[in-house]
Amino acid sequence: MQIPAEISFHNLPSSPEIEAEIRQRIGKLEKIYDRMTTCRVRVDQRNSNGSGTIPPVVRIELSLPGRKDLVVTHEPEHLQRKFKHPDVHNAVHEAFHTAERQLAEFKSQLTNHKAAGTHEAANEFSGQIAEVTPGEDFGFLLTKEGGLLYFHRNSLLSGDFNTLKRGMPVSYIEEMGDTGPTASKVRLRV
User: Fold this and answer.
1) Which of 42, 110, 125, 166 matches a 20 to 30 Å C-alpha distance to 187?
2) What digits encode the pLDDT tens for the residues 135-165?
3) Which tens digits make up the pLDDT trace of 73-103?
4) pLDDT reported for residue 35
C-alpha cells in the first residue's frame, strides 16, 4: 500500500489483540489485490445494552486505483442474526470476509475487462502532467486518485515532449514496468 493502514476504535477501548487480527486480515487483502492505495478500518461500538450482546460496527474502506473506494460495513443486526453471542471478533471476521469477497470480485472484473477489451480506449485513464524533466527524457503524471506515474518521452503519442507543462490534461494506459506501474501511450487531451 502507498499509505499505511489506519485502524481506529470508537466508543470502546483499543485492543492490541484485535488490532493484530485486523492487520493480519489487511495483509490477506493485500495478497488478493496488491495495488490497494490504503485501507481504513473503524471499529465503533454505537450501541450497548446491559447484557453486552450488541456487537460493534466494523467499517472497512479500501482505496483502489481507478475506482471509487470499496466500503464494507456490518451492522449489529446482521451479526445478531448469525451468531448466538456476537462479539468484536465476529464483527471483524464478517466484515473482512465480505471485503475479501468484494475485492476478489473487483480484481476478477478488472482482469476480465482488460482481457476482453478489444479497443485500447477501454483501458484508458485520465490524468494530468505533474512534472516533466526534458533533459532527462521523462516525467510524471498525476492520476485522478492522486498518485504519480512515471512516463518516458517515447510514451508520448501526441504533442511535443519539450512543450509539456504541469497541469496539462492527458489520457494514458497504465502498464506494469520493471520497477512498478508506469504510464504508456500518453496522449494530450484537448
Assistant:
1) 110
2) 888 989 988 777 888 899 888 888 888 888 8
3) 877 777 777 777 788 888 899 899 999 999 9
4) 87
Alpha-carbon distance of 21 to 23, in angstroms, equals 6
Which grid coordinates belong to 83?
451468531
Length of the chain: 190
Give the mean pLDDT of 23-51: 88
Give the residue from 162, 157, 156, 167 showing the smallest Cα distance to 131: 167
User: What's this model's pTM, rounded to 2 decimal places?
Assistant: 0.58
The CA distance from 173 to 92, in Å, is 37
Pairing of strands 57-63, 70-74: antiparallel
Looking at 3.30.160.100, 1.10.760.10, 3.10.50.40, 3.90.1150.10, the CATH number of the domain 6-116 comes to 3.30.160.100
DSSP string, 45-105: -----TT---PPEEEEEEE-TTSPPEEEEE-HHHHHHH-SS--HHHHHHHHHHHHHHHHHH
Average pLDDT, integer, range 40-47: 89
DSSP SS3 for 163:
helix
